[in-house]
Input
Amino acid sequence: MLEAVIFDFDGVITDSEILHFRAFNKVLAQHGLELTKKEYYTNYLGLSDVDCFGTLIDENRLGVKRVQIKDLIQQKTRVFEQLARTDGKIIEGVREFLDMLTGARIPIAICSGALRAEIELILEDAGLRRLFDVIVSAEEVTRGKPDPEGFLLTLQRLNETGVTPITPGQCIVIEDSHWGLKAARAAGMHTIAVTNTYDAEQLAAAQRVVHRLSDLTMDDLTGLCR
Output
């Protein structure tokens, strides 16, 4: 039985992956580094800010010490917020899908590698914040995707808001990357992938792949949880 839907944020609800790419490069340029779009989407897109900067340091591509990561994240967040206010948008089909879920009284949550301030900013501007029962952001986990920690914490928070306990098998996760799909499977949850960032072949690990969330019906969702 379907009891909850958990969304990734970047690339699922908002078309902001390219904004993160631009914000990262704005900060990295100060240190003589520029990522190509292809390598960012292939190697770094699914990582949290901490893990992205940390990986670049470990790869000896970014010549700073780990203690400087906090400052780099603050710089990147300021750039991202400026871009989000001018260029951020909600992906087509998302509003209709959220309306369907709320109409069916299905609890909905976000589990994202983005920072809470970034998530809240875009949701508030779009008038969608009130729809989400729980938001788990990058600051609240010690291990990002593909580790399942974030999804399990999201489920724990959902259970704190309700009376009847929800199990992992009663949750559907909606993702746009293989990192997220791997984390959702490790958490024991059902998976739907949307092809906003990667093509269907790269998302084949999902139980269902769609081009737009509004293509899905309640029967589609409940069928995954039977």
